[in-house]
Amino acid sequence: MRNTLALVCDSANMTADGKLNILGVFSEVRAHRFPATHATMTIVLKFNNILGDEGEMLLTGRFLDSDGGETITPIKMPVNLGQGHDEAVSIINISSLEFPGVGDYCFEISSGEEYLASVPIKARSIED
Q1: How, if at all, do strands 36-48 and 87-99 pair?
Q2: pTM for the predicted model, two decimal places
């Protein structure tokens, strides 16, 4: 499986005819004080399968701080890959994500022991 898209945004959906709609792509959250809670965000992942990657695979998403520590319980995401070079899209909606402090964070996506993608996000302070 090969990752072709990994981003964080305000919202995303798939249309009935298979188009991926993405709204409000961002890579930074700002707050007056920390810890800070971001109300909602969406992680969008898109994969192309490689021969032999057919069927359902279980992906794991981990939200990591700059030291590599997990800040939330890992998220399990089933992805169904078709035959040939079909694409698979995963849209993960996250509510009330807490950022303990200012710093660099990332969503790391893996399948078993195989690293697939990383989506960086920064938490910054808003100056009063």
Answers
A1: antiparallel
A2: 0.84
